[in-house]
Amino acid sequence: MAEGRLLPTAQGDARVYVHAADRPHLTLVLQPGASGKLDAADLQTLAAHLPGQGVTVVLLEPPFAVAGKRLAPRPVALDEALAEVVPQLAIGTPLVVGGRSAGARSSCRSALAVGAVGCLCLAFPLHPPGKPEKSRQAELLGAGVPTLVVQGERDAFGGPGEFPPLPATTELVAVPGATHSLARPEAVLLAVTSWLPGINT
Fold it and tell me: Where is the KANL3/Tex30 alpha/beta hydrolase-like domain (predicted)?
């Protein structure tokens, strides 16, 4: 992993790991799931491979995780940290925000506010396991920018078949056999690299 850099926020320091492309044409800021850990295979695979395709990848460790806490104090804490971190990155390319699970929800809620041109959702938690009536589809549909959802076929938080009809600007890619962990990072990388060039930047 690239060397981390601390950035101040109202919640305390966040840490960013910048995997820089030599000649970037896009920057992708990725947030982790509710645990705050950045070791998920999908996040690490994107950070390792996308810079070679001209995409700078920034992995964002939220303040609660930097402070050694196991969970965010509240869901919007991720949104608040993202909003404070993005301006400090001094990004000189179009921005795509994204993340896995809770980080995907936060990115949907924040995309327009931080000036992103796209949103990447890895294992979007459409509902809590076993509670499809508690849908979070409004967050996904409210992103307001072109969005890619990469979803495990057996995701207990909502499989691809449970998603509502999606607008033309939102693409859903199912990963066969995968659960919420998306433990097929090569499939995630293929989906993301296929989608990124189509973003109207």
Answer: 27-185
